[in-house]
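haha ok so turns out i had the wrong file open the whole time. this is the CORRECT one, sorry everyone. sequence first:
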Amino acid sequence: MDSLEEKTVKRETIFDGKIIKLVVDDVVLPNGATSKREIVKHPGAVAVVAITPENKMVMVEQYRKPLEKAIVEIPAGKIEPDEAPELTAGRELEEETGYKTDDLKHLVSFYTSPGFADELLHIYLAGDLKKQANPLQADEDEFVNIVEVSLDEALQLIEEKVICDAKTVYAVQYWQLLEATR
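then structure:
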């Protein structure tokens, strides 16, 4: 197969924010023509599938400004510079839900929107959850309600479009497969 690579000949940073950077690349296409690519640069993120001993999935309800509504999702967060994804996963789980674990298993990593972003999301399964009396504090601009739901309730929330993001739909389907094999 011929190369599909697009060679960057110029890059301009349009925005450099707290979470993302937006760049515009001038590229030479495989056929020699030129085009522009708008790219969101992201440091990467983690998400945690956390199921309690009572067989409830720990989630958070959070307002998502791009959607202009609150949704229910699994705990997640941005990887800090020089932080290993597994450490981020443990920190985010505790900050957002008050649960802690020493048992994290990497499930999968995937690019969330490779057509315009380089964000790589790492999903972990948390076992042996322990509720903390004095958990880590959430970020000052982060407001969440902790929600613990059964598998049937999670499936209903998907049906109602209250759970509507890819990582959480994945988490619920993973849980459904786990339950089917028991």
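The helical segments are 85-97, 151-159, 166-180.
again sry for the mixup
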